[in-house]
Amino acid sequence: MAKILFTMRKIVPILILMLAFCSCSQDIRFNNEGVFQGIINNIFWVGGNAKATKDNTKMSIQALTLTEVVRLDFPLPPLNINPLKKDTFITYDLGTSTNRTAFYSITTLDGTNEFKTAIGVGDGQIVVSQYDGLTISGTFRFNAESTDPESDETVNVQSGTFYKVPVY
Questions:
Q1: Rounded to an integer, what distance in angstroms lies between the CA atom of residue 43 and that of residue 63?
Q2: SS3 string of the chain?
Q3: What is the mean pLDDT of the chain?
Q4: pLDDT band (50, 70, 90) for residue 12
Q5: Residue-level pLDDT at 161
Q6: Which of 23, 26, 98, 140 is in the most buried spot, having the most CB atoms within 10 Å?
Q7: Mean pLDDT, to the nearest integer, of 15-37?
Q8: 129 exposure class (CB count in 10 Å sphere: 0-12, 13-18, 19+)
Q9: For range 48-71, the mean pLDDT
């Protein structure tokens, strides 16, 4: 009996140590989705399914929710943007061109309201702080006017950020 107790005294601490080591694992998950967020009319907004598409001359970044869409269109930035050097960042002013625009739409029970910038319509800025051909990052802000000629509504977007949005 004494031999069994002596053996049990050795086994129990070993079992406790094994249990302790097994329970010390971490469940690490990586989020490989791009971030696209901002403050729309003073309400924090996070768009999902952010993606950027490009052609030979143009970049378009878009994110959406169930009822809203935000899209930024601007000329294709160069690949030499260094996120550690501010003087390499590319700035696009909005409201001055047809190839640098911002778009926002919201769908409600009453229908869809669309807002955009264009030449002499709205204002704002897009700053690209990182672009490597695979992902794009930067900031944005804009005031866009309703596309309905009978409406004088505007939408204000502040503190916008897009980070590591995948480029397709």
A1: 16
A2: CHHHHHHHHHHHHHHHHHHHHHCCCCCCCCCCCCEEEEEECCEEEEEEEEEEEECCCEEEEEEECCCEEEEEEEECCCCCECCCCHHHCEEEEECCCCCCEEEEEEEECCEEEEEECECCECEEEEEEEEECCCEEEEEEEEEEEECCCCCCCEEEEEEEEEEEEEEC
A3: 88
A4: low
A5: 98
A6: 140
A7: 63
A8: buried
A9: 96
Phi, psi of 121 (to 5 degrees): -120, 115
Neighbours of 99 (CB within 10 A): 10
- Rounded CA separation 21/130 (Å): 42
For residue 12, which amino acid is it?
Answer: V
pTM score of the predicted model: 0.80
Distance CA 55, CA 43 (A): 33
